[in-house]
Amino acid sequence: MEKKANQLKEFVEGNVAFKKNFFKKHETELIELSRMGQQPKALFIGCADSRVVPNLVTQAKPGDLFVIRNIGNFVPQYRENECFNSTSAGIEYAVTVLNVSEIIICGHTQCGAIEHLYQNVNTTAHIQKWLALGKQAKNMALISQSKDVTKEELYRVTEKLSIISQIEHLMSYPCVKAKIDAEELFIHGWYYDISDGSIDYYDPDEGTFKALSELEKNNF
Q1: Number of helices (H) and strands (E), helices first, in the chain?
Q2: Out of 23-37, 77-91, 127-141, 186-200, which region has the weakest mean confidence (pLDDT)?
Q3: Which one of 159, 180, 190, 191 has the fewest CB atoms closer than 10 angstroms to its CB?
Q4: What digits encode the pLDDT tens for the residues 71-106?
Q5: Burial of 102 (0-12, 13-18, 19+ CB in 10 A)
Q6: What value does the CA radius of gyration of the chain take, rounded to a whole number of Å?
């Protein structure tokens, strides 16, 4: 118990500092959020990787993002009778209850889930089943790349292709498709580089990823 307490010490101290500093400085806005409920601007589907922190990399304020994080930022295809799928439930909640107008699917470099697709190792049943959601991206990457591509290059390509694949899965949800067709909902594919903090976005018209900073320059 003492060892665990020591490991958590910095988090305990962090909460104390949060209450004294950030919460006190933004007390009016945070109390208003507690009274009025949440009205997030976007649903952010990201990886559970501890190096990827949605509110930090976007500088979003509390209440701005409804966040779903899982291994590999995967989106299961829509199934009516799927049991206990928190990602699918979160998507439907964000779209039908919170009425978000934007969905961001954010992948990242050095993704362990993507690398695991290429490693012949035994995993637990739940991990193995979940990683199946990335196999389409892996297959597309293997087909599109030459045989002399490096392992790291193959991983990076697969990470980007997986974002596109998850967007396709997202479109299988009736509530999502209905709002897309009505132009009430928009989907974005982002690719975060953990080595320099930059984000690329997927341009479906050109079928490529471009620097998100370019959108800001163009008064996006």
Answers
A1: 11, 6
A2: 77-91
A3: 180
A4: 999 999 998 877 779 999 999 999 999 999 999 999
A5: middle
A6: 19
